[in-house]
Design goal:
- The chain is of the alpha/beta class and about 200 residues long.
- The chain has a 7-stranded mixed β-sheet with strand order 3-2-1-4-5-7-6, sandwiched between helices.
- Strand 1, helix 4 and strand 2 form a beta-alpha-beta unit.
- Helix 1 runs antiparallel to helix 5.
- The longest helix has 19 residues.
- It is globular and about 45 Å long.
- It starts with a helix and ends with a strand.
Length: about 200
């Protein structure tokens, strides 16, 4: 009996690793550049929290968020691309993540549940927002009192050839949306990525 339990115990990490495995070579490359566990430590994501990822796509980060918050937590995967969210939902179902809900938002409203979230998370997507102030103003309504937003975003290259948002633009836009900047983490500065940590601005 003891041997069976030990074998089962040893098998569990491999099963978890499989369901967190990157779906393709590009995901593997991005996960090497911005390791999900390290990013989640930086943004302060803990077990039992309710988090939404805006621009979740096919779920590259969603599975890691779901694993971190655990069965007592909740993950809302939001995107305007319904097909990508279907892939995300299928991926979570295969991985056994029952704490994930997908939400098809629109360009100015992520349609997140009001007052439900501890954290809003965005990675590599902010620069695609057509009207970030409008979108994040609506997103802020989904936060609990004291809730936070964490945005991992590219710094535009000096030659202008590439995507991203300047720190100045990020701060100004998020302030207009009702947030105040608390900290900028530069762990991935060499990869041209900053992680901005915001909190709701008190009225």
């Amino acid at each position: 009996m003891a041997a069976v339990l030990l074998t089962a115990g040893l098998a569990m990490p491999q099963a978890v690793q499989d369901r967190l495995a990157p779906a393709n070579a590009n995901e593997a490359r991005l996960n090497r550049l911005q390791p999900p566990a390290q990013v989640m430590d930086i943004i302060g994501l803990k077990a039992g929290m309710a988090v939404a990822e805006i621009g979740a796509g096919g779920g590259r980060y969603v599975v890691h968020l779901a694993d971190r918050v655990g069965p007592e937590g909740k993950v809302y995967a939001e995107d305007i691309d319904a097909d990508a969210l279907k892939r995300c939902a299928d991926r979570c179902r295969r991985g056994g993540f029952e704490n994930v809900a997908t939400i098809v938002g629109d360009l100015a409203d992520p349609k997140l549940p009001s007052g439900a979230l501890d954290l809003i998370f965005i990675i590599s997507s902010y620069h695609h927002f057509g009207d970030p102030v409008a979108l994040m103003s609506k997103a802020r309504e989904a936060l609990k009192t004291g809730g936070r937003a964490a945005i991992a975003e590219w710094i535009p290259p000096a030659n202008g050839r590439g995507e991203g948002t300047t720190p100045e633009a990020m701060k100004a836009q998020m302030e207009k949306a009702g947030f105040r900047l608390e900290h900028i983490d530069r762990t991935f500065d060499a990869d041209r990525m900053l992680i901005y940590l915001f909190r709701q601005r008190r009225s």
